[in-house]
Amino acid sequence: MAENVLFEIGCEEIPARFMPGLITEIKSKAKDKLSSMNLDFSNIYSSGTCRRLVLYIEKLAGKQPDCTEEIQGPPAEIAFDQNNKPTPAAFGFAKKCGIKVEQLKIRTVSNRNYVYSQVKKKGLSSEKLLPQILKEIISSIYLPLAMRWGSNDFKFIRPIHWIVALHGSKIIKFELAGIKSSNITFGHRFIKNPKRHIKHADLNKYKEILKKANVLVDSDERRDKISKLIKKADYYAHLDKNLLEEVNYLVEFPIAQKGKFNPKYLSLPKEVLITSMKKNQKYFSVIDFSGKLLPKFILVSNNSKNVVRGNEKVISARLADAMFFFNKDRKIPLKSRVADLKKVEYFQGLGSMHDKVERLQKLSLYIAKHLKIAEIEHQKIINAAELSKADLTTEMVFEFPDLQGVMGREYALASGEDKDTAEAIFEHYLPRFAEDKLPAAMIGTVVSLADKIDTMAGCFLIGKIPSGSEDPFGLRRSAHGVIKIVLEKKIDLLLDEIFNYSLEVYGNKEPSNIVKQLIQFIAGRMKVLLVDEDIPSQVAEAALANFNDILEAKEITHVLNNNLKNDWFLGIAATQSRISKMVKDIKRDQVITADFIDQCEKDLYELYLKVNWNTAEKINSGDYNGALLELSALTQPIEEFFKKVMVMHEDERIKTNRLALLKTIEKLFFSYSDFTKLQV
C-alpha cells in the first residue's frame, strides 16, 4: 500500500545563500535514488528554512515490484561434460541460485556459451529500504561547506539537532550524526515549549502544526508573506529580488517593521544608501514614485518585539561611516588616483590594474576606429578607459565593492570630468548580470566591450579557462555581456580580429590557438542564449559551426530555424551530409578543369562558381535567407552528378579531381552553416 514519507533535518542556522541549492539538491537526489531502487511515487516536494531542510514523498509504493534476475554462471564446457551431463560446477551454481540443475539455461556471450539461471526475486518493502535510502540521500547532497560536528565522522553544513522521519504513521528508525530519528520537530526558537509531535506523514498537517509554532516552512509561502508585509509597512518599499530571496532564508516567521534615518544622509548618492542598507543590515529601501529615495527603511526579522530603535542606531552609524568615506574620497581628483592602480594587482600573471587600464585605452581606441566613431569622441573614450578603474583605490569601493563604477561616475563628476566620460565609467561594467541593462551611450559601449574582451583574452592567455560550474573570474558573464551588447547595438565585430589585437596588446606574438579557444568559448555562450530563445540545439550548433561574427550567427540561426520544415532546405542538409561522408578524409580542394571528362562535372563546377559568387554577395548585403536559397540551387544538380558520374573513377587523376570538386562544394556549404548537424 502506498504511503507518504516525511523527512525533516533540523539543524543550526544554515547560511541563506546555500538554502535554494540545498532544497533543489535534496529533491533531485531523492528522485534519482527512488528511481534507482525501482520504487514508484506520485510526487516529491522539498522546502526549508534556515533551521530545517524538508523532503516529502507522496504516495511511495509499498514495495519494489517482483522481478526475474538472470545470473551468469560458468562456461558451458565446464558446467557440462562431453556427454552433456552436469558437472559439480553446474550443481554448485544451481544450488547457489536456489534452483534445480535442470532449470539452468545456456546463453552465448562473445562467441562463448555460458550457463545462466533465472531467479525470481521478490521486491523488498519500502519500510525496510527507507532508512538506508534517506541516509544515502542526505549523504549524496552537494554541500558547499561540509564539516564534521562533534565526535562522529558524518559531515553536514551545520550541526544536526533533530531528525523527523515518518512513513505513514510509523517512524523510520535510523541514526545520523549521532541523532536518532523520531516524530518530534521543533517550532520557532523564540517561543516557549517549541517541541511538536508529528503523528502522520501528511504535508498539510505538518505545515499547519509548524505554523502554529511560528514557523512558515514553505519557502514560497514565506516569500509571499514577506512581500506583503513589506508593502503593508510602506507602499513605496523597494522589493529587491535578491534581498528578498536572502531574507526569505534568514527568518522562519517574518515580522516587518519600519524605521527611519536622518535625512541629511540623502546627500549621499542613492546607490550608497541602498547598498549600505542592503549589504550590511538586510534592510529594504523606500523609493517614491518619482525614483527619489526616502529616509526610511523596512527590516524583516524573526522577533515580534519592536527592534526598530536599535536598528535605527545601527544604520545611523553605518551611514555616518559612508559619509566619511565619501567626503574623504572626493578630496583626491579621480585622475590622480590612476597611478595608485599600479599597487592593485589585476590577476596573477596579468600585471596590475594600471596595466589593464593601459590595455583598455589601446583596445577601446581600436574598437572606436573599427566602428568608425567620430574622431572627436576618441579622446573621451580614451579618457573614460583611463579612469574606468580608478575608483578601486577609494575607501567607499573598498567597503562596498558592488559600488565600483557607480562611485567612479560620482567622483569623476566631482573632479570636473564631463558627463559623458563620467557616465561611461559607470556603463563600462554593464551588464553586470543576466537581466541587467546595457550601456546606453557609445562611449560606455566601447569601453565595456574592451574591458570584457581584455578580461577573457588575458585569462585564456594564462590558462584560466572555465570548466564545469567553476568560473571564478566571471568569464561567462563577460562573454554574455559581449554577446548582448553586440546584438542590441547591432555591432559588426569579427571575433578573430578583435581577440588577435587584444592578445597582441598583451604582447602575445602567436595567438592563433588561443583565439580559436576564445571563439569556441563565445560560441558556447551564444548557444546557451539561442537555446534559451527556444532555438533547437541542433540548429544552434549548425549555425555556430563556422562562428566568427555574433550578429551573422544570430541571423543565420533564425533563417535555418524558419526553414527547418521546408523540403528544399532538408535537401541541402541531406546533400551536404552525403558529400561530407565521401570527402571526410580529403584535404585537396583545388579543382583542375582540364581533368574534367564529363559534361555533368563541368556543368556542376560552373554552377558552383555562380552560386559561390551569388552567396557571397547575399551574405555581404545581409540577405541570409537569399544566400540559403542560392545554396539550394546546388542540391538537384549534385544529385544528377551522383547518378551520372562515377566519383571513384579507376583513373586516380580523375577520381582525385572529382573529390576535390565535392570538397570545394562542401566548403561552400560549410561557409554558411554545418548542415550535417541537422537531423534529416
From TrEMBL:
The keyword ATP-binding applies. Keywords: Aminoacyl-tRNA synthetase, ATP-binding, Cytoplasm, Ligase, Nucleotide-binding, Protein biosynthesis. It is found in: Cytoplasm. InterPro entries: DALR_anticod-bd (IPR008909), Gly-tRNA-synth_bsu (IPR015944), Gly-tRNA-synth_heterodimer (IPR006194). One of its GO terms (cellular component) is cytosol. The keyword Ligase applies. It catalyses: tRNA(Gly) + glycine + ATP = glycyl-tRNA(Gly) + AMP + diphosphate. It comes from the Bacteria. One of its GO terms (biological process) is glycyl-tRNA aminoacylation. Its EC number is 6.1.1.14. Pfam families: DALR_1 (PF05746), tRNA_synt_2f (PF02092). Residues 577-668 form the DALR anticodon binding domain. GO terms for molecular function: arginine-tRNA ligase activity; ATP binding; glycine-tRNA ligase activity. Belongs to the class-II aminoacyl-tRNA synthetase family. PANTHER family: GLYCINE--TRNA LIGASE, CHLOROPLASTIC_MITOCHONDRIAL 2, GLYCYL-TRNA SYNTHETASE. Tetramer of two alpha and two beta subunits. This is Glycine--tRNA ligase beta subunit. The lineage of its organism: Bacteria, Bacillati, Saganbacteria. The gene is glyS.
